[in-house]
Structures are given as C-alpha cells and as structure tokens.
Write a structure and sequence with these properties.
twelve-stranded mixed sheet; 267 residues; 7 helices; single chain; alpha+beta; disordered N terminus; globular
Length: 267
C-alpha cells in the first residue's frame, strides 16, 4: 500500500522543495544534487505527527537521474535523449539481478492513447484528466499558489527558483516519471493534472516548499522534499553501485520484469 500510494501521488504533487540543510542555497556545481522525498496521507497534526507512508531519494549527476524508492527497494534510472537515441528509463531489481529498458517514445505513445480514450469517457475524473482546467491564483508576496477545480485542488507553498537550469532538468524528469508511473501501475487516465502543475510552477519561476492535493472523497495527500545542492560520498557510492549493476544485471523484456517484481500476492 505504501509503495502504491507513493508512486501514485508523489509525482502527482510535482514537488521540488528547496529545503537545503545548509545556511542558504549555494550555487549548484558539477557535483550534482539530491532530493529526499517524503509522502504523507491525511491532515497534518503537529501534536501527533504521522510517519510518512513512503520515502525516496533522487540523485542527479551528469545528466542522469537515479531514483531510489525505499520500500520496497526499487531503482529507476532516467537518461535524457542523446543524438538519435530517445530518452529512456532503466528499471533495476536487485532481488532478481535484472534490468529492463523503456523508451520515452513508447511511453509517450501510450499517454497519447490514454488522452484520447479519457476524453471520450463519461467518468468525470477521466474526462477531466484528459484536459484539466484549473482556476489559478498566485500571491507574489507570499508565494502561495492554488490550482482549483471541481475535481481536485492543489495548494502549494513556493519560493523563487534560484537555479533555473537544475529546475528545468528536474521538471523533465518529473514529467517523464509521471508518465512512466501511469504506465507501470496500469492507471487508465493520463497524468495531465500533475504535469499541468509542473507547467504553472515553471511559468511563475518558483519551486514548491510543500504541496497538498485534495480530491473529493479521498484523504489529503502531502509531499515534502529536502533539496541539497551537493552529493555526499554515500550518494556517489550509490551511483557507483548502480553503474556496476548495469554492467552485470541481465536485461529482460518489460513484461518479464513486471512479472518478476510485482507483489507476490498479485501474481
């Protein structure tokens, strides 16, 4: 449940919270950067804080993104397009020592099909997701952004983006992962609402500090990120381990990878 909740809502919230642990944000360097994500379900209660339902760490280095889901332990690598090679994800399973590649061309084709199908559905959310329309308000003084609709609402605390190049890289990853997440979990509606939020944040040149998503009849979902502009030695070691796995793990088709890694009670 935690993993499903995390995958479904983490990128729906489209967060890039600038909560650096150092005093003030330093200029980004070639050392890469890290985002630690925590997702919570339900109203925030300071006197009785709830533990996060899921956590992940996302590392950016040399144009490659390494995403580590804590529970269950899963790794996804995102590579931008180079030359005539399209962007792609590589999924790794340490338990089975296998990997599987998925091109963004394949994912984008499926998303276009979902948009067309959803636009013809009678279900209100499906039709909304095909072409979401929000009433937008943004307060320049407080940085508060609200996207409201009759289906779902986003409430976002933001601050100005101080490193636009890095945020553009992060946005590309967020949009791409939102689409991958839709495909892997068999979600039958396109991820347009969360991608629309990405677009609004980019237009205002802000990054979110906290984002809350509410839908009628569902628990509130809150996501928070801790953003650090320099990778630690442990981060570099995790990346080195992933690179070693890429050379040793057996490559399998997407269907075989999905069958091997899905929860046992779902097989």
């Amino acid at each position: 449940m935690a993993a499903l909740t995390f995958r479904r809502f983490r990128f729906a919230l489209c967060l890039a919270t600038m909560l650096s642990p150092v005093a003030g944000l330093q200029l980004a360097t070639a050392d890469g950067f890290r985002i630690a994500t925590k997702v919570y379900v339900g109203e925030e209660k300071p006197k009785k804080p709830k533990p996060p339902v899921a956590e992940a760490t996302t590392l950016f280095l040399d144009g490659v993104v390494y995403d580590f889901l804590k529970t269950p332990e899963q790794t996804a690598i995102f590579r931008k397009p180079t030359g005539d090679k399209p962007a792609q994800f590589i999924l790794l399973s340490d338990e089975h020592s296998i990997q599987s590649k998925i091109s963004m061309e394949k994912i984008s084709g499926l998303m276009q099909k979902l948009r067309t199908e959803s636009s013809h559905q009678h279900d209100p959310f499906s039709k909304f997701a095909a072409n979401p329309q929000f009433d937008e308000s943004f307060d320049d003084n407080t940085g508060k952004l609200v996207l409201a609709s009759h289906i779902e609402n986003y409430s976002v605390d933001t601050k100005p983006a101080e490193h636009p190049e890095e945020m553009r890289e992060y946005r590309v990853f967020l949009d791409s992962y939102a689409q991958l997440n839709t495909m892997l979990n068999g979600i039958r509606v396109p991820p347009e609402p969360r991608m629309r939020l990405n677009s609004v944040l980019a237009r205002h040149k802000v990054v979110p500090l906290k984002v809350e998503l509410t839908r009628k009849g569902e628990d509130l979902i809150r996501a928070e990120h801790e953003f650090t502009w320099r990778l630690s030695q442990d981060d570099h070691k995790r990346i080195d381990d992933v690179r070693a796995s890429l050379t040793s793990y057996r490559e399998v088709p997407n269907e075989e990878f999905h069958h091997a890694t899905r929860p046992r009670d779902a097989k």
